Amino acid sequence: MLAEALSTKFLFLYAFLASAAFVHFRGRVRHKFTRQLTDHSTLMAPINVFMYAFSAVSNKPLPDVKDFPGLDLIRNNWETIRDEALALDEGGSIKAADSYNDLGFNSFYRRGWKRFYLRWYTDEFHPSAVEKCPKTIEILKQVPTIHAAMFTLLPPGGRLVAHRDPYAGSLRYHLGLVTPNDDKCRIYIDDNMYSWRDGEDVVFDETYIHWAVNESDTDRIIFFADVERPMRYRFATLINRFFSKYLISAAKTSNEEGEKVGILNKAFAYVYQVRLLGKRLKAYNRKLYYAQKYVLMALILAAIIFWL
């Protein structure tokens, strides 16, 4: 019995390591190995490999927008959506998080990025969005495969560092609203360059490494959404929706005080205090910082093996 239990544990471990290796070597651009070890995409690797395996659309970095029904409705109404985004920006509603309650995008704020959420992997739209963006909300209600949506702003000089998003069950959609209309404001997805234009859209796989920069003298405002990845079989679609509803939705956060915040972001407000201690340790002694980091990773891996 003990031998069988150990065999099962190591089978799970091998499957996890194989998935993590696949994610790391996927695409032309990769993180350094030490960065990939602690990246959230490593933790999510087994789930994401399942999504890639049963995807009904191409697994290339830039799939065709035409493969996603309903996005033409968003694109055809881009001026209506743009007008509400401009009103939000003029009123100061497109902004950085007010506190440590936005785990998924926390690092972006240091480089000028701002956002206003419309919905985040739940059936409910943010109350502030319903109040301030009624026309956009009515359009989104007609496209049920959009599970998350927001307006985002990248100012002149703004930069988003190279990163992978954690979940492959969706694909990222960008629609240019108010842009420099210039290659000086651009994004790279696995080394494929795309520059935003007013009224033009793109779909990309955000689990490839991507980064962005605005070297123009104009703000870039876009409509930003997560679109459900089409799956080849019904059971795969149900599994995708399960993880979206019960895992990714836990990262929901607020635009304004009083709106619901998911459990992951509630915890993040406390966990980030530990992160701040780590930053101070790193500034004091880099070798000591990395030593404790790798010891902690080894302990977590040992705990996972024991739990399995």
Explain what you see.
This protein is of the alpha+beta class and 308 residues long. It folds into 2 domains: 2-55 and 283-307, no CATH class; 65-264, B-lactam Antibiotic, Isopenicillin N Synthase, Chain (Jelly Rolls), CATH 2.60.120.330. The protein has 11 helices and 9 strands. It has helices spanning 2-25, 33-38, 40-43, 45-53, 71-76, 78-90, 127-132, 134-140, 234-246, 263-284, 286-307, and strands spanning 114-120, 146-154, 159-163, 170-178, 185-189, 192-195, 201-204, 210-214, 220-228.
Please give the CATH class of the largest domain: Mainly Beta
Spatial sequence of strands, sheet with the most strands: 1-2-9-4-7
Task: Report the principal-axis shape.
Answer: globular
What number of structural domains do the residues give? 2
What's the CATH architecture of the largest domain?
Answer: Sandwich
Considering the protein shown, what is the CATH homologous superfamily of the largest domain? B-lactam Antibiotic, Isopenicillin N Synthase, Chain
- Nearest-angstrom radius of gyration? 20 Å
Instruction: Name the structural class.
Output: alpha+beta
Q: How large a portion of the residues is in β-strands, by DSSP E?
A: 15-25%
How many H/I helical runs? Answer: 11
End-to-end Cα distance, whole Å, is 14 Å
User: What do we call the CATH topology of the largest domain?
Assistant: Jelly Rolls
The total of beta strands comes to: 9
Please state the average pLDDT score: 90
Helix content: 40-55%
Helix and strand string, N-terminal first? HHHHHHEHHEEEEEEEEHHH
Largest sheet entry: 5 strands, antiparallel
Report the uncertain regions. none
